[in-house]
Amino acid sequence: MNTNLRELEDTIKYRFSDEELLRQALYHPSYSGEMRWGRERSNQRLEFLGDAVLELVVSDYLYRAHPDVEEGELTRMRSSLVFEAALTVCARDISLGDYIYLGKGEDSSFGREKPSILSDTFEAVIGAIYLDGGVEAAKRFIYTFLIDDIDEMSLLRDGKSLIQEYTQRFENMSLRYNTFSLDSPDHQKKFRSELYINEKLVAEGNGHSKKTAEQDAALKAIRIMGIRN
What we know:
By secondary structure, the chain is mainly alpha-helical.
């Protein structure tokens, strides 16, 4: 674990006036429980706040960026950004897992790699920035680490359907996945998925479930093949 929060602040391009807010954003409930603190000392309240700030900022961006798009499509576009896989990618981009305070059991079961923990902590950091620096500071953070990569993030949810739609355009093009479990502990299963087009291996993906492994393979294939919405 990295306890140098200055390094994290340098990465996220924000310096906290109250560093304790950032520290609290990194306290996973397993850690606060192990320390015999009340649940209010964990990052759950900040996660709740950050989730609301994130949804507001993304909604505002989509509303302004797409003046002719109807409400239903705006909702779909927002859901393609504000969901676990996209936030997990953002968290990994800033190496957030290295800084999270975890209980010993959660840490030993690869908690720093779990999408649910990474995405929740990312939202907690948004909440901490909002409390420390206001909505504009939170907005800058969200734009830098999520919205600026909006096209990439939107593919994370729709990758499998996008590549399936692409292959269906061609009469003689076939698509299949070969997905299997890797040798890993029962409490931390890992899967690998091989994506084949016309029986040629195009990409391999990994994940903690068959679904996420296939989604990872699909996303990599989309990048390799240059497919876009």
